[in-house]
Amino acid sequence: MSRHYIMRRLLIAIPSILGISVILFGVLALAPGDPFADLAANPAIPPEVAASLRAKFGLDDPVWLRYVHWLVAMLHGDWGFSFASRIDVDRLILQRLPITLVVIGAAQLLAIVVALPVGVLAGVKPYSIFDQIANTMAFIGFSLPTFFTGLLLILLFSVKLDWLPMVYRTDLASSGWQWWWDQLKQSIMPVAVLGLFQGASLVRYVRSAVLDVVRLDYVTTARSKGIGESAVITRHVVRTALIPVVTLVALQMPVVFGGALVTEQIFRVPGIGSLLISAMLANDTPVVMGVTFVFACLVVFFNLIADILYGWLDPRISYR
Amino acid sequence: MAGSTPASLTAEAPGAAAAATGARSASKAPSTPGREAWRRFRRHRLAMASSVVLAIIVLAVVLGPLLWRVPINEIDFASKLEGPSWTHPFGTDDLGQDILARLLYGGRISLAVGFCAMLVAAVVGVMVGAIAGMSRGSVDAGLMWLADLFLALPQLPLLLLIIYLFRDSLTKILGPEGGIFIMVVAVIGGLRWMQVARLVRAQILSIREKEFIEAARALGASRLRQVVRHILPNALGPVIVAGTIDVAAAIIAESTLSFLGLGFPPDIPTWGRVLFDAKDTIDVAPHWVLFSGGAIFLAVLTINFIGDGLRDALDPRRVL
After folding, report:
1. Residue A295: its chain B contacts at CB < 8 A?
2. Which residues form the domain of B117?
3. Whole-angstrom Cα distance, residue A303 to residue A309?
4. Is the CB of B154 less than 8 angstroms away from the CB of A135?
5. What percent of chain B has pLDDT over 70?
6. pTM here?
7. Which domain CATH number covers B185?
């Protein structure tokens, strides 16, 4: 893979970020509601003062100029001030971001660990009993919305069995090993909900990718050389089949973030997803914009990683 | 779904295929494309079962409120949070309202949102895809870049953002029920057209080079006529499949919004909204969560299975 390829991908990512920022700003600019509405309605403030305030904050500028101002401010890291939390938006988001990334990362890991073996086995022996069961389970898995699975798990493991805590706490009283144990216990359900939902759609991708590869001639060649079946599958089939799966995992990222948002809300995980919801319920517009923008940037970032990984895994791509 | 193996399992068990060949030679060979598709669809047992279940759900939702004449908002604190009984088959909620009546009424809205959002997505998608497919060069490239951009948007956060910003003013114009309905449908549909657009474009690119299009062109058919009369009918199969899956996705999206407390107001009991109200009493009234979540799950699962069956039925390249 050449450095050129990475550079070109990076350059393609920039218009995407810009496009997304235009859409976000457009939504904000089109939205009714004027931050100075109650100022204008206040009889104690003379209209000239209100007008000069408007001019000072650039509210009367043309839209494109406001967009440029907004974008420059965002790039400078000046993301505004949270009305509700009394703290800068960027600091607030940075506080909450790690836990979201940990939950999403762990969930993706779980999804891959579950989906890879199941999908490969199903694809190697298509139409077998195992394949049919796996396929039906996958269908059920991605037809179960995350909010319902979350509630079902709470009902089963917290209410009925009382094994796992219902909500996620950041102020665990314990320390040392006990702390890690408690942390693990309270993370199981959020990660499982998200991971199994992801895993369900991943199983189908892996299966069809394996199914595509397993009929190719080079696999027959490998078999006829007398290599054991397991070596054929792991060394020859899976390695090739995983290439499209990598891209699909990254393309699924928008869905994952949506799922993470819901999961965080159910289990009260203090990540940026629950921050977004609480900011919306509190009418905290700067936080809402900031978090949405972070989500958008994360999606573009993961797409970029997928492209680069794809180029690395499949050298044919780079030479296009 | 990606991959060149649109295989679904139940339809393809070798035994079933052999049996079907036998059945076909016994009966008359199907002649029209419609009958052929129906023959393939019938072979998908889970899809057939799902059609029956979904038909029952739709019938219950359409006719149910006429037959089950319990008001959805009759508050009765004497019988609150009761489990299923003869007077209240699905139990009651924390205000003593009948859950069955609420689910039947709310199901109308949940299913209508799903269906209308799919229509929006399909119409926008077909138009964008047709324009992109028929015009070469910069228009095509631009539209596809736009589709890619929309695919990279974080759907759920953006959906929440738009609803958050526009809800108040739209409800003022169109009333609480109509305003939210139109907005939810437009936004969910407006964020889901990309898949259809790409499908239509890909289909058009291949179909427009075929001889029968050349013949139509030679006979002097205008471009519009070529597209509407000759190309689109042949490109419809994948669009129908994608549309079916979109209905399920839109139902999930609406339920998610309502579940996060940002969708329909409390007096409109869509399935997601009922689940949202139910989640805080999950320890004392699990039936409330189970019935409302189960309704969403069942609707989504059956629609997904039907989509899978249609994929088998409408893909003319597959020989079954």
Report:
1. 154, 157
2. 34-70+92-313
3. 10
4. no
5. 82
6. 0.82
7. 1.10.3720.10
